[in-house]
Amino acid sequence: MPVTVGPYGQSQPSCFDRVKMGFTMGFAVGMAAGALFGTFSCLRIGMRGRELMGGIGKAMIQSGGTFGTFMSIGMGIRC
Fold this sequence. Notes:
Layout: H1 15-44, H2 49-78
Helix pairs in contact: 1-2
């Protein structure tokens, strides 16, 4: 299958590359949102020290993974 070439001689990223990029961007945005919301929720229930860091990290990974998954699905639909 020939590689498609853009207007300036660059090849277009494959569908898999677009899905990976969507997951990466979604994961980064989800991590930032998870840091904000996780910090507030952990402080609200009274966590301190190591427990606070673990709670924030868990919220960041969960929201990053969730948002990254949905962004990669959206990019896959656009291919």
